Amino acid sequence: MTLIFGHRGYAAIYPENTMTSFKEALNAGADGLELDVQLSQDGELVVIHDPTVDRTTDGTGAVRELTLEQLKKLNAANHSKTVEFAGIPTLKEVMEWLVGTEMLLNIELKNTVYPYKGMEEKVIELIREFNMEERVILSSFNHYSLVYCHRIAPNIETAPLYSAGLYMPWVYAESIRAKSIHPKFRAAPNEIIEQCQQAGIAVRPYTVNRKGDMNRLFKLGCSAFITDDPDLAVRLRKEFETFH
Questions:
Q1: N or C: where does the chain have the smaller number of CB atoms within 10 Å of the terminal CB?
Q2: Where are the extended beta strands (E) located within the chain?
């Protein structure tokens, strides 16, 4: 069965990377969550996508230049039509809630624009604290960071993110000890997905929002995909399973 990961939660309708968005993804039937982490000025792991707070909140400034206390005062539902207020969660807050569910968790380390020193250790320490090693996938566009994560925690799955075509990505994944790959869905044609999975490398394309693309992945038996609209994906999967 192709698993469904809610991209930043249920980002199609709810404010991305907020507890509201994560809980609604669970309610929609998603099997897992995808979220982004960065470090605040005082070294706290916070869940937010951009290097600045400008797009997603009512504040301005770089995440790494704001303290957790300052970040907590911001409204991450500033542009939402569904929710009046949602705070920026810490990774710990998300995991405290998530541990009581059966959901998988894909943590994207946002350390490409700004390489947060010590981020990998902090994330892995938190995963171990909640005994979530078997339920977490660490992904990043910074593949050096993923190699480092594997060195310090070989039992936690890593998955390189990439957006352009990659030659024999299953060989590349094995070379950096990754058990899976997270390509942009346009960089994951059928034959690449099939060859990866035959080689034992899971494939979870992002960000898959159109029905035709979802159905293609269901037909292929793709490991999983990441979508802004988990409700649509779950409904299509039920239809697919009914007729196949």
A1: C
A2: 3-7, 32-39, 45-47, 104-109, 136-140, 157-162, 180-183, 202-203, 224-227
